[in-house]
Amino acid sequence: MATRISHLINAALPELRYEPTAKRVRASLGGAPVLDSVSAVLLWEPRPVVPIYAVPESDVLAQLSVSTAIVPAGPVEAKVLTPEDAFALHTTKGTVLDVEVAGRTLSAAAFRLSDPGLPGIVAFDFRSFDWLEEDGPIDAHPRDPFKRVDILASSRHVRVELEGMLLAESRHPRMLFETHVPARYYVQPSEVAWDALVATNSSSKCPYKGTANYWAPASGGRDVAWSYANPLPEAAAIAGLLCFYNERTDYIVDGHRLPRPQTPFG
């Protein structure tokens, strides 16, 4: 029986997963070194969908100590954990650690794993430190070596609606295909019904695309659209274009209404 690869990947979500990297990985805090490793691993605890970095404790340059912080338990009903969830929501066995560097103590910012397959490995809260892969800074979270992003010009006819109200219409969108994410349709600003939207203070960072800003319906409600004004070089094709959540709006593509996909962003 043939096996769909995405099903194999999704089936592993409840497991502790790791992948070695050949990159030199460094972290610092205010210029003070925290770790420096050529033996780092990308680590996924059970249920998180993006990786963090973990390194042998011998490559840690900061002082580690067992934390007395009270850390919350992850919600039992959650199917996945996203980058918005706290590092402290550990879903595997281990020891929570404080990190002391340059006279500062970061509570519960590291985690020593108990898994026998990862002896002496310590994971770090990505958002608490500044990170380098080789000599290049990285943001948001490490890139997943099993993820790909393709941006292609398209001639599909796309209409985006919300409760019957037109938000955008395009006959030449840019389509972004990202592993494990629904196909996204980016449209020109001139194709957007701006009177139906209002800019919000929301922003997010993506290691593949850059920093996004968001819009919500003028009538109120959650953010429904985003744009990368100054994307990373590899995503330059979507600079200044607008994209609407498939999960929160209604798409009619080439005359066919698409069902709203079920994702953590719904």
DSSP helical segment count: 1
Which structural category fits the helices and strands?
mainly beta
Oligomer: single chain
Largest sheet: 7 strands, antiparallel
Percentage of residues in helical conformation: under 10%
**Spatial order of the strands forming the largest sheet:** 1-4-5-9-8-7-6
Low-confidence stretches: none
Give the integer mean of the pLDDT values. 95
Overall spatial form: elongated
Quick rundown:
It contains one helix and 22 strands. It is mainly β and 266 residues long.
Task: Describe the fold and architecture.
There is one protein chain. The chain is mostly beta strands. It is built from 1 helix and 22 strands. It has one helix spanning 5-11; strands at 17-20, 25-29, 32-37, 41-44, 52-56, 63-66, 94-101, 104-113, 121-124, 130-133, 136-138, 149-153, 158-162, 165-170, 174-178, 184-187, 197-206, 210-217, 225-227, 242-244, 250-253, 256-257. The relative contact order is 0.12.
